[in-house]
Write a structure and sequence with these properties.
With 438 residues, this protein is of the alpha/beta class. Helices cover 38% and strands 21% of the residues.
Amino acid sequence: MGFTVRGTIMQTPGPTKLEVRHGVAVAVNDDGIITSIEHANDVAPLQTVLLPGLIDTHIHAPQWPQLGTGLDLDLESWLFEHTFPLEAKLTDPSFASEVWPSLVSTLLAHGTTTATYYATIDVETTTMLAETCRAAGQRAFVGRVAMDHPDGTPQWYRDANAAQGIEASARSIDAIVALGSDLVQPIITPRFAPACTDELLRGLGELASSTGVRVQTHCSESDWEHNYAFNRFGMSDTAALDGFGLLRDHTVLAHGDHLGRDDLATLRARGAGVAHCPMSNAYFANAVFPARRALDAGVRVGLGTDVAGGARPNVLSQCGEAVTMSRLLDEGVDAELAPQDRGVAGSRVSIVEAFWMGTLGGGELLGLDVGLLEVGRPFDAVAVDTARPTSALRLWDGVDDDARSFEKVVRLAEPADFTDVWVAGRRVAGAAPKQGVA
């Protein structure tokens, strides 16, 4: 039978292109694929806005219980005193059975139709996360975290050795593939170079080559991580990962704040890209990611919340933060410097570019046919009520044109405004069960 959704589409088919289609009817077939988008005379202007589903390219699932805490700490203290103990606790299936449903359901309520997860070092609880995503209907990549370096990890939370880490990662891939879900896929996940021996990194690169499974890791996030690579490998983090065979088509590198121009060229050549996490970068990266430079270099860029290094689980909020951080980089922050010496001119990104990163850009980074409402693509979408009483989101006739209305939706919409959230045509969340569906 399929169904039809009516509203006004707002989306970004390109990094600098805003498309607004007023009063349309979107037809979706039984397979969750968009079959037509036609003008509909009976649709109230801008009452219901349809956005492509939001794509979060970097989430630490076991950090969900610490969301909003510890962000005044340095990274080492945050990891070893808070994060690693919590992640170790999430290797307990009984605790994971409480945390995973809370995480996935909340992200869906925030419009995150596609999520890219770092799980735990444990195969069982990693598989449980994949099962949770499948049951909830979220499109997801789920990765067992591999980490074995004795200097970069606690003794009580790491793989015993590289061989064990490679073998467990292979078993995790098999377990997730065995779920038989069209939506949930495995992803090979070395945590980051400081947490992995050369043998583990090389073995995971070989595993990626032999299986074709995507890769995610951290890269040049902070001064410490960026300089660590030069001290250990004699080359940049990017070059080292490339040498281990981990830079592949659709490899997702989290943060990348300190990537150099040669690094960006390597990413473009390999088809890899960056999960830009603007909020968490403010806490732990010691720099602002040069999103403008990366986009101009042709590098794939998506957005990530970096739960829990980022304190909000909402991709839309990251769109606003991406604009904010780019302006700080552009203009600088130290008022004691002369204006011409204070920032990196030409660094700004627009709200259109930021939303593109959070939708179609993220889809392209992950190699998925999502992020745009278009005939032939899966219907991953969020319906936004623009007239909910007490909402900060309010559009004014004679004041707000399409561009202003779009910016308001991106900056001000929150889960209470999301009447429906769909993944592959299945309604998975929303504040109003039938709103917008005919």
